[in-house]
Amino acid sequence: MVIYAVAPTSGTSHAKAAAIARFIDYTPGMTAGQTPGMTAGQTPGMSAGQLPPGFLPLTAKLRAQARKDAQEVLNQTGDSRR
């Protein structure tokens, strides 16, 4: 099951948009010292912050979408007239 989030792409201060973008980007984002192909929030295991048995890492397509969405939040590229 994929979990979705709603995030503002317009009308948000830069500081708040940056914080939201960091949160969205954490899941598919690479952190220092990790094995290539394993991303922050996507490493299988039983320790805090790891995916326990029964949970699968995001696909490459979903990781790319999350990165794109984080950039849209950060840059506030949405239409505020909706």
**First CA to last CA: what distance?**
29 Å
What is the string of helix and strand elements?
A: HH
Low-confidence stretches: 31-38
The biggest sheet amounts to: none
pLDDT averaged residue by residue = 80
Shape: elongated
Radius of gyration: 14 Å
**Fraction of residues in H or I helices:** 25-40%
Q: Report the structural category.
A: mainly alpha
Topology, number of strands: 0
* Strand coverage percent: under 5%
Total of DSSP H or I helical runs spanning 4+ residues: 2
What does this structure look like?
This protein is an all-alpha fold and 82 residues long. It contains two helices and no strands. It has helices at residues 14-26, 60-75. α1 (14-26) packs antiparallel against α2. The radius of gyration is 14 Å and the shape is elongated. Residues 31-38 have low confidence and may be disordered.
What labels describe this entry?
2 helices, mainly alpha, 82 residues
Blueprint (SSEs and pairs):
Elements: H1 14-26, H2 60-75
Helix pairs in contact: 1-2
